[in-house]
Amino acid sequence: MNIIVGSNNPAKIAAVTDIFSQDKITGIQAPSQVSAQPFSDAETRLGAINRATYCLQEASGDIGVGLEGGVMYVNNGLYLCNWGALVTKNNNVFTASGARILLPSEIENELNEGVELGDVMDAYAKRQDVRKKEGAIGIFTNERISRKEMFVHVVKLLYGQWEYAGV
Ligand SMILES: O=P(O)(O)OP(=O)(O)OP(=O)(O)OC[C@H]1O[C@@H](n2cnc3c(O)ncnc32)[C@H](O)[C@@H]1O
Ligand SMILES: [Mg+2]
């Protein structure tokens, strides 16, 4: 199958490649049509669906996959959240979310000032391109779970639901 992924972020591409290991994977830049930094579950999920849908509109593929990172409040705590969507040629849409962890209040303050998490993380961790490598989840879990590994879980949830539905 031809799998189109709505991103060129290596952490996202690697996660899809791990799960769709027999298939051809192509990354394209797909607009999420939500904020660059989504701030709720609903917005992050919509970004993933929009990316997946765009993939099959713009490229000839069998399956479109959208993966989107965001943050969301649970009571007073700001959590990292991630969503994935898988869209088939017949317009079946499957969605799944990833692991969540609480972000430190310094990170929350910067995000509330409008800085994107990717940029905040590079400054905070004194590293480059955290978003393409271990991710915020990698930094704050002492690298026990990388951004790729977190997305592998999301893509497995998508793959399994699609397989179960048999569409
Ligand atoms: O090229 P794309 O696919 O857009 O990849 P991205 O790294 O920008 O990722 P998202 O748009 O899905 O994430 C939205 C924002 O949140 C940031 N972000 C989300 N999860 C992150 C993580 O685990 N580590 C670092 N930044 C993260 C990301 O850098 C963006 O600023
Ligand atoms: Mg982005």
UniProtKB/TrEMBL annotation:
Non-canonical purine NTP phosphatase/PRRC1 domain segment(s): 6-155
UniProt keyword NADP, yes or no: no
Catalytic activity: XTP + H2O = XDP + phosphate + H(+); ITP + H2O = IDP + phosphate + H(+)
Keywords per UniProt: Hydrolase, Magnesium, Manganese, Metal-binding, Nucleotide metabolism, Nucleotide-binding
UniProt EC number: 3.6.1.73
Uppermost EC category: hydrolase
Keyword set includes Manganese: yes
Molecular function GO labels: ITPase activity; metal ion binding; nucleotide binding
Source superkingdom: Bacteria
Cofactor needs: Mg(2+); Mn(2+)
UniProt record, GO biological process: nucleotide metabolic process
Record-given protein name: inosine/xanthosine triphosphatase
